[in-house]
Amino acid sequence: MTDPAFDPFRHMEAMASACGLTIADAHKPGVAAFLTLAHGMAAALMAAPLADDALDPAPVFRPGQAPSGDA
Predict the structure, then answer these.
(1) What's phi and psi for 70, nearest 5 deg?
(2) Residue 61 phi/psi, 5° resolution?
């Protein structure tokens, strides 16, 4: 279920740059391993069959406010 086109090191460098992050060289192999794992989990999730009408939007959460109609 791995995507040969996915390069975790290229993704890491692009996202770190976009977010203004610096990733130490010593941490890059671990970050790349996690990105590979996350990519595989996302691919498995996206491959699961799901009807278009299976999802209803969740209500908006507003802390400190009770939903209308509830006391």
Answers:
(1) -105, 145
(2) -90, 125
The residues near 59 (Cβ < 8 Å, ≥ 6 apart) are 67
Q: How far apart are CA 8 and CA 13, in angstroms?
A: 9
Structure confidence by residue, pLDDT tens digits, 5-56: 999 999 999 999 999 999 999 999 999 999 999 999 999 999 999 888 888 8
In this prediction, residue 58 carries a pLDDT of 79
The CA-based dihedral angle spanning residues 40, 43, 48, 54, taken in that order and rounded to the nearest 10 degrees: 120
